[in-house]
Amino acid sequence: MDLDVRPIHSGQRVGLELSRRQIVLKNEEGDTKEVAPLVYVVWRKCNSENTVNDLIEYCVDRTRKSKDFISGIVFDILKDLKNTGFLQY
C-alpha cells in the first residue's frame, strides 16, 4: 500500500455499544458495522488530509508499539474498511 495515499471515510457513526466497547458505523448503502475503538479512530482520521503514513505514526504514538507491528494492523484495517464500503482511496 502506498504510504502517501490520503484515504477518506464514508458513512457515519450511528451508535455506541459501551458494554462491548464497540462503535457502530453506517455506510452510504445503509450497511452497519460494529468496530473496535482502534478501527474507529483510524476510520475517523481518514479525512483526505492524513496519509496512510500519518495514520501509522498516530497509532504508533498512541499505542507505543513498533512501527512494523502497527503498519500491518493499519493496512488490515484500511483494507477491511475499503472492502466493506466504509473507506475510499
Tell me briefly what this model is.
The protein is an alpha+beta fold. The protein has helices at residues 37-45, 52-63, 67-83, and strands at 8-9, 12-17, 22-26, 32-35, 87-88.
Q: In order across it, which strands form the biggest sheet?
A: 2-3-4
Portion in helices: 40-55%
Q: What are the secondary-structure elements, in order, as H or E?
A: EEEEHHHE
Q: What is the end-to-end distance?
A: 10 Å
Q: Please tell me the overall pLDDT.
A: 95
Radius of gyration: 13 Å
CATH topology value: Arc Repressor Mutant, subunit A
Strand percentage lies at 15-25%
Structural domains: how many: 1
CATH class, please? Mainly Alpha
Biggest beta sheet summary: 3 strands, antiparallel
CATH architecture: Orthogonal Bundle
Task: Write down the overall geometry.
Answer: globular
Number of strands: 5
Structural class: alpha+beta
Overview of the structural elements:
The protein is globular. It has 3 helices and 5 strands; from the N terminus they run ββββαααβ. The chain has a single domain (10-88), classed as Arc Repressor Mutant, subunit A (Orthogonal Bundle). The model has no long low-confidence stretch (mean pLDDT 95). The protein has a 3-stranded antiparallel β-sheet with strand order 2-3-4. Strands 1-5 form a two-stranded antiparallel sheet. Strand 2 and strand 3 (22-26) form a beta hairpin. Helices cover 43% and strands 21% of the residues. By secondary structure, it is α+β, with helices and mostly antiparallel strands.
